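Appendix B. Extra example for self-study. Work through it before the problem class; the solution is given directly after the inputs so you can check yourself.
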Amino acid sequence: MRIRFKLNGREVEAEVEPNTLLLNLLREQFHLTGAKYGCGIGECGACTVLLDGEPILSCLTLAVEVDGREVTTIEGLAGDGELHPLQRAFLEEGAVQCGFCTPGMILTAKALLEENPNPSEDEIREYLKGNLCRCTGYVNIVKAVKKAAEEMAG
Amino acid sequence: MMAQGFRLIGESTPRMDGIAKVTGQEVYSSDIHFPNMLHARVLKSPYPHARVKRIDVSEAEKLGAIVVTYREVPDVVYCPRLVSTPEATYKDWRVLTGRPLYVGDPIAAVAAESEEMAQRALEAIDVEFEVLEPSFDPLDSMRPEKTSIHERIMYMGKEIKIENNIACTMEIEQGDVEKGFSEADVVLEREYRTNRRYHCQLEPKTAVVRPEPDGGVTIWTTTQSIHNTRLLIHEIFGIPAGKINVVKTALGGAFGSSIQTNIVVPIAVALALKAHKPVRLAYTREEDLHEHCSYQMIFNLKLGAKRDGKLTAGSLEAILDIGAHQIQAYPLLGCLVGWWVSLYKLPNLRYVGKAVYTNKVPSCAMRGFGNPQITWAVESMMDELAEELGIDPVEFKLLNHVGLGDLFWGQGPTVKSIIKSSGVEEIVRRGAKLIGWDKRPKPGEQRGRYRRGIGFGRGFHTSSAGGPVPGTAVDYTGAMLKVNEDGSFDYITALMDCGGGTLTAHAKIIAEEIGVPLECINIVRSDTQTTLYDVCTHASRGVYAGGMAALQVAREVKRKLLELAARVLDAYPHALKIRPDEERSQGVIYVEGVEGREITIGELASMARHKNWGTIAAVASVRQGSCPPHFTAYFVEVEVDTETGKVRPIRVVAGADVGSVINPKLAEGQIHGGFAMGWSMAILEDTPYDPENGDLMNRGFINNYKLPTPADLVPPDRFTVFFANTYEPTGPLGAKGIGEGALNPVAGAVANAIYNAIGIRFYELPITPIKILKALREREGG
Ligand code: FES
Ligand code: FES
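Solution. Structure tokens for the complete assembly:
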């Protein structure tokens, strides 16, 4: 099947099987390996991408579902060589260790800040519940999201 | 003594691979892709103990798949972990097996053009098994009438016989234990049982193998040691080591589960050699859960103390459930006694350790290598003993702790050195003050639904397996540093960064020592062919041992720079200085006090090229002569909901003595991550087995396994981390390790906090809501 969608701001087309997963489409056909396979069954959040701005698990999403819609991956977040404030905050706060959870974590955090530009620490922790990190204990991640929120508020 | 006068050390700097990681451009082995690559799947035993009677792969081959079975792989018995010397290595592994020993044991593997085709081929393989009697519990497994899991294994090139499924043992006795106990006023003896945890590193095990025209292979894999991966593939397949190139990629966490070469590597090599094409074998999470787990341990611990608080004797019997294979059971028996005797001074002691085979997933090191397990038991008992003696646990532990000037068994009986820096008093006293230790409730006094308690646990971990004599652990690191013509430096090391920011720490050490801006240091993407040997990123050695190699090449390069600059500037090398010039992004060599006599490192390196002086470079292979402990102390406040049995963390205060703190935010991150792992070790994680089918009850599900989510832990404003003011004289610019000490005392602190809240002690991990409710009900009725 042929699908057409917007990927990181660009119109793209792809030939997919009815059972092709979005995660595999992104990683194998578009070579966007920022979305990670951590479990394949919707438990870890490492495969998170944004579909029309909403965080979704690409390991549980069929590629055909994105036809005519807009997908943003971590590779599409930084504009013109400028890091997104969340990316910068993750770096500066030491919120990245092995980095395997990072793309999914940042994209989920982006959706949070769009919904709620000034979240409390508890709201951040609650919202990120579906994204597992085995390295950081989430402390610096929560700090980074808070910092990015402050920065984005100006 | 404190680290002083540093420019970069002690300042928080973003990790150097950070931009790649936050933009999704970092390359992990699971991201490696080749156009003509085949995808592999592995056929695994559905039985915990069986023999393959018949296997027919013809249907799979008809589908066009490449198939290898246990009959075709090299007949080599190996140990996947090459950190120990042959005297401490027992071998009982094969690449594929016709006698599976656990659910998930690989029997055959297929490779095809897509994962889907590979799966279809896998399902077309016809196997018939003869099912054998399994053992799931080490105590049961040791009974003489039980079926042998391994009849014979290999040790030092010879076959040895295994009796009663006991894989290996160790016994140590010092002083007169009976006399020691008879002198004690209070003696406690308890049995402790730990959980069997799963690392759950976020990246499942993966190998990509590309056969090369010269008969060699190139390998990208989830490993903590590229060189040991190469050596093992050489050992199994006989390919000359020089033709095996293992390429470094980023690692999506490991926590010890990739110290050994993961089973996916030799399987993918076997397939790639047969297919003459690149092969990718990436485990699913479910498969990964069947690949590795921590060691489950049963301790019989006995400690005696006098009324004045001095410990007089200790005895420890440890039974380790190692699962179906040895990865490092024997070295672990040594480490376990080492951790035990290095916590508190025991004038008389006896230790018996037994590692026992069971038909379960093979156990391996998991952050702390037995230390979190024994520290939980000891810290629980010390708390209990202090109460019996009527002494404050803080004072009792400080009185008996192994500290400055004492002998430390860094990595077991063959790796010992004297402690030359200790911040134990400082972190314990300051931590106690910050949490309000004096104001904690009396145990069991509270009534009502929610009860709060504060617990204290302390511990340590080694910083490498270095030592003044060789021992039975290999521990050295190689480093190369060269000056580029623009004044930048290429730093080349085989040492892996498992996520801690280890290589950023090395770059800081180099930049600090030479006196150049940090951006000048380029960490080269390297592989086994272009690096010196490094043993492995384990034993919290990355900064302490690996960083020492970085420091030595930095010193040597600096010496050469000054020598050449002395010619150009017409001055004496020892009178020259280097300062960082942030604007020009490089170092400037100058004569102090004489204006105008200066040259940038770039100018000097270019001149060296034009004048044919050669490349300014250095190479070093460094063994640390010591294994200093880094110390940690945790004070944790918890709240127990007596209606649901749930425990919630309220506040955490953690103090750490890691010597010079190279990168504070990343060091704090180690503590945060260590706490999270320790917290869930205490109350959440376990991998129980279904005795009916011998499989894991939580199969492939992480949520059933119960990892903590951000909502389960404390927010940043209730987590305090501070560092001791210490300097390790044998460390690179005063630094020690941190990774494992960050975890080791946590479960003990949490268990003591639960006791403080509800007045009940638990001797089995994890302390689940069901256990808490049951214990409360027994005590309080209802
Ligand atoms: S890979 Fe999609 S949730 Fe884990
Ligand atoms: S940084 Fe490793 S899993 Fe989050």
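Self-check: Residues 85-153 of chain A form a domain with the DNA polymerase; domain 1 fold (CATH 1.10.150.120). If your reasoning did not lead you there, revisit section 3.
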